[in-house]
Design goal:
The chain is mostly helical. The chain is built from ten helices and two strands. A two-stranded antiparallel ribbon has the order 1-2.
C-alpha cells in the first residue's frame, strides 16, 4: 500500500503580517498625509475679500530684500525674519479662523493652536538660552539684547493665558469659544507685533557695532556659524512631529518675488518627508495652515 499523500496546509495571508501591514500603512499615509489634503490655492493679488494670514499682524520685510546687504548680521536678521513670518502667519491663521471653526473640527483646531504656542514658546526659550549669549560673546557686549528682553516680557503673560485657555478646553472641545480666543490674542497682539518686527532691526543693526567682526576674518566665520547652527537646530529641537510640519506649512515661497522659495535649504525629499511622513502624526491639524507646498492657500475655516 502506498503511503498517504501529505498535503501541505494552504498558507494564509495571516502568516505574513507584512502583507497586511503594507496596504494598511499606505492607506493611512494617503488619508493622513498633508500632501494629499486638497486646499484651494490662493492668489494674494486677487481682491476676493477673504482674509488670509498676512493680517492682522503685518508680515516682516526681510533686511536682505530691503537693503540688498549681505553682511553676517543682515543675513542672520533675514533668516530670523523668515522664521518670524512663519510664526506670524501662524498667529494670523489662528486669529482669522478661530471664530469660524466647525464643531466637528474644534479638537483639530485646538491642536493646531497649541502647536503654534509651542513653536513660539520654544523659539523664545532657545533665543534666551542659546542664541543671545553666543552673540553677546562674539561682540563682547552683554547689553545688546536689553530692549529685546523687555519686549519678550511684554507678551509672555498673554501667551501664557492663550495656552491656559486652550488647555482648559482641550479635553472638552465643545466648550471652545473662538471669540474668546481672539479676545485673548488681542490682549497681547500689540507687544507681540512690536517685538517680532523690532528684533529683526536689532539684529541687522549689529553690523554697525564697534566689535562687529571684520569681513573675511575668523571671527566673522565664527559669528556666521553661530547663526547658521542655531537656525538649523531651533525648529527641529522644538518638535519633529508637530512644530516642524507647522513651520514648513506656514512658509510662503512666493513672498518677496520668490526670493526665499528654497529656504530653508533642506533637500526636497527630506522636506517632503518632514511634512508628509512626520507630519502625518498630527495630520488633522494641518488643514488650518496658511500654505501648502510653499504657496499660500485659502484658510480652511473660511472656505
Amino acid at each position: 500500500m502506498e503511503p498517504p499523500v501529505k498535503y501541505q496546509p494552504r498558507r494564509s495571508i495571516l502568516d505574513k503580517p507584512i502583507l497586511i501591514a503594507i496596504p494598511i500603512l499606505i492607506g493611512l499615509f494617503i488619508t493622513r498625509s498633508p500632501f494629499f489634503m486638497s486646499a484651494p490655492a490662493l492668489d494674494l493679488t486677487a481682491a476676493d475679500g477673504k482674509p488670509w494670514a498676512d493680517a492682522p499682524i503685518k508680515l516682516v520685510t526681510t533686511p536682505q530684500y530691503e537693503t540688498k546687504k549681505t553682511d553676517i548680521f543682515t543675513t542672520g536678521a533675514t533668516h530670523m525674519a523668515l522664521l518670524h513670518n512663519a510664526i506670524l502667519r501662524g498667529y494670523n491663521s489662528v486669529y482669522q479662523q478661530a471664530p469660524h471653526v466647525k464643531p466637528t473640527e474644534t479638537s483639530d483646531f485646538i491642536g493646531y493652536a497649541l502647536t503654534w504656542y509651542k513653536f513660539v514658546a520654544t523659539h523664545h526659550d532657545d533665543e534666551e538660552a542659546t542664541l543671545f549669549p553666543k552673540v553677546e560673546e562674539v561682540l563682547q557686549d552683554t547689553t545688546i539684547w536689553a530692549a529685546t528682553h523687555k519686549e519678550h516680557e511684554a507678551f509672555l503673560g498673554g501667551l501664557a493665558q492663550f495656552e491656559r485657555y486652550l488647555r482648559g478646553v482641550e479635553a472638552q472641545p465643545a466648550k471652545f469659544d473662538g471669540a474668546e480666543l481672539v479676545s485673548i490674542m488681542d490682549g497681547f497682539r500689540e507687544p507681540f507685533d512690536a517685538h517680532f518686527h523690532s528684533e529683526i532691526a536689532t539684529i541687522a543693526a549689529l553690523a554697525g557695532h564697534p566689535n562687529a567682526p571684520k569681513p573675511g576674518s575668523p571671527e566673522e566665520q565664527t559669528a556666521a556659524l553661530t547663526f547658521k547652527s542655531w537656525g538649523k537646530s531651533t525648529v527641529t529641537k522644538a518638535g519633529t512631529l508637530d512644530v516642524v510640519p507647522f513651520f514648513l506649512l506656514n512658509l510662503d515661497g512666493t513672498a518677496e518675488e520668490g526670493a526665499w522659495e528654497n529656504w530653508p535649504p533642506i533637500p526636497a525629499p527630506i522636506k517632503w518627508g518632514l511634512v508628509n511622513i512626520a507630519g502625518a502624526w498630527h495630520s488633522r491639524r494641518w488643514k488650518f495652515s496658511s500654505c501648502s507646498g510653499g504657496r499660500p492657500r485659502q484658510l480652511h475655516a473660511l472656505e
